[in-house]
Amino acid sequence: MAAIEMRNIVKRYGDGFQAVDNVSLDIADGEFIILVGPSGCGKSTLLRMIVGLEDITSGDMIIGGTRVNKKAPRDRNLAMVFQNYALYPHLTVFENIAFPLRLKKTPDAEVTEQVNRAAELLQLTEHLDRRPAHLSGGQRQRVAMGRAIVRQADAFLFDEPLSNLDAKLRGQMRTEISRMQRRLGTTTVYVTHDQTEAMTLGDRIAVLRKGVLQQVGSARQLYEEP
Ligand code: ADP
Ligand code: ADP
């Protein structure tokens, strides 16, 4: 069974603009898929419809076998990582990562265990007592990923997570994101307009253009073969 199935998904905004045009795509359980395409092609709109932050005009969104068209984000059990990190400045790294667990009133011992495990995976163990203002951009990005990890979500959704970082850091973070995804085996949808990211991350690439899904395949299939 696919983790995420999109069936003839259409998005027309209030002004009549059709941002997503009849997209059908199956994302396998544990798969790392990249949505790539030029700015304005509808990537972010599609991702937001998966998470539930945007209504679907027509078509079906099926997550874990259940149609979720009308389900609120909190009922979809997905974890979105935004490009602006959305960290709480007054909380330590530990509490920033722990935040979703605190909301769920998870017992302290389990919070500590889960936060430590995520911190180890993301090489944040030495920074747990610091506040976001004292971290580098890459470290902040990792804290945001730590928060997604402790949600124990069915899928991770990344919306251009590295676009605020410099080129060197982007390279490092690409490596870390693939390592994290492989270790956890969590289904991941990753939006980018950057071809290098598309080619080096992920199992498959889905190419969007003007709201239409143009091609789906591995980097080799899409970029290397004539
Ligand atoms: P991408 O993520 O690929 O850059 P988006 O999904 O953000 O593209 O946007 C796709 C298209 O939909 C763009 O042309 C954008 O201007 C339009 N769009 C996005 N949000 C809205 C909105 N709230 N109302 C009207 N048009 C929108
Ligand atoms: P509250 O509204 O209680 O302050 P949040 O806004 O943090 O809590 O989250 C409300 C619900 O929305 C959460 O239960 C969660 O399932 C969902 N949610 C919040 N942030 C994300 C995210 N980054 N990715 C996916 N779902 C989220």
UniProtKB/TrEMBL annotation:
Stretches that traverse the bilayer: none
GO molecular function: ABC-type transporter activity; ATP binding; ATP hydrolysis activity
Residue ranges of domain ABC transporter in the record: 4-226
One cellular component term from this protein's GO annotations in UniProt: ATP-binding cassette (ABC) transporter complex, substrate-binding subunit-containing
Keyword Heme part of the UniProt annotation: no
Keywords: ATP-binding, Cell membrane, Membrane, Nucleotide-binding, Sugar transport, Translocase, Transport
GO biological process annotation, one example: carbohydrate transport
Protein name from the UniProt record: Multiple sugar transport system ATP-binding protein
Coverage span on the entire protein: 1 to 226 of 399
